[in-house]
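User: Design a sequence. Structure:
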């Protein structure tokens, strides 16, 4: 068991880049991690890491040994997963990456419920809007909205969400409610900086239409953009899952409800492992249900 602990400590130091960060993630102390790796190096008769006061970097031997260590730990996890199947009690660490807004508004609550339901479970939830490579960055599950999917990953499409055209009651009171697309084109829009072009394609049951948009303010954070809409700063295209509750509470108003903006498609991705550990399977099922219910 000490050998497995040492392998786990070594892999975590390699992933996080320091003994102290690895110790925190493993809920232990830096001297313990240092001792485990020193014992591992002594048994292998090679130096795996170069240590400094703040960083730990792999030696050439450490680079070569890292993937073998990962495979050994994966094999052990798979064996434990076979036992876990009998009890359906997940245990151990699951690393999950997700977009910032979806994580903040929806998935964080799911993680907290899961930790309460499964006392032996550990979760690393990393919120990033950039593309996260599950293989390179060692994530078990990655939630991704849109974009090109890498061919070497297992990806499942979970949902397609329309974007509604929304504004606050205060904005409508000050600027009037647009009744036609021509009216809408004369209003100020809030957008993301990477949403290129000055024309947005809208869709309805009758077909599609091009809408020219005027933008004075753009922001690269979905929750901040939603806050700006609620404050009455302008009109925005917002995915339905972000605004459905606000529309029910009449904190936002959907404009021209027969029209929708470009859709969002959400995927759940994972590395192409032979078998996922029980803890990953459980979190995968919970994520699928949570996202599809939005």
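Assistant: Done.
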């Amino acid at each position: 068991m000490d050998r497995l602990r040492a392998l786990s400590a070594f892999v975590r130091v390699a992933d996080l880049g320091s003994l102290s960060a690895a110790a925190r993630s493993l809920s232990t102390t830096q001297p313990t991690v240092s001792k485990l790796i020193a014992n591992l190096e002594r048994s292998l008769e090679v130096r795996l890491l170069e240590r400094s006061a703040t960083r730990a970097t792999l030696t050439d031997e450490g680079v070569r040994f890292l993937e073998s260590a990962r495979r050994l730990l994966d094999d052990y996890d798979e064996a434990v997963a076979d036992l876990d199947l009998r009890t359906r009690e997940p245990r151990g660490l699951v690393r999950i990456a997700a977009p910032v807004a979806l994580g903040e508004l929806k998935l964080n609550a799911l993680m907290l419920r899961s930790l309460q339901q499964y006392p032996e479970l550990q979760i690393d939830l990393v919120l990033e809007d950039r593309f996260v490579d599950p293989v390179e960055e060692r994530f078990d599950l990655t939630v991704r909205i849109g974009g090109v999917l890498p061919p070497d990953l297992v990806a499942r499409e979970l949902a397609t969400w329309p974007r509604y055209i929304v504004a606050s009651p205060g904005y409508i009171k000050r600027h009037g409610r647009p009744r036609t697309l021509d009216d809408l084109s004369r209003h100020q829009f809030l957008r993301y900086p990477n949403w290129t072009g000055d024309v947005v394609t809208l869709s309805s049951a009758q077909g599609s239409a091009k809408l020219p948009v005027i933008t004075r303010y753009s922001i690269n954070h979905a929750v901040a953009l939603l806050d700006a809409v609620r404050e009455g700063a302008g009109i925005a295209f917002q995915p339905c899952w972000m605004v459905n509750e606000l529309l029910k509470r009449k904190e936002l108003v959907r404009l021209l409800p027969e029209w929708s903006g470009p859709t969002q498609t959400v995927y759940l991705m994972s590395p192409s492992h032979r078998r996922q550990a029980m803890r990953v399977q459980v979190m995968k099922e919970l994520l699928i249900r949570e996202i599809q219910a939005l």
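The chain has a mean pLDDT of 89. The longest strand covers residues 153-167.
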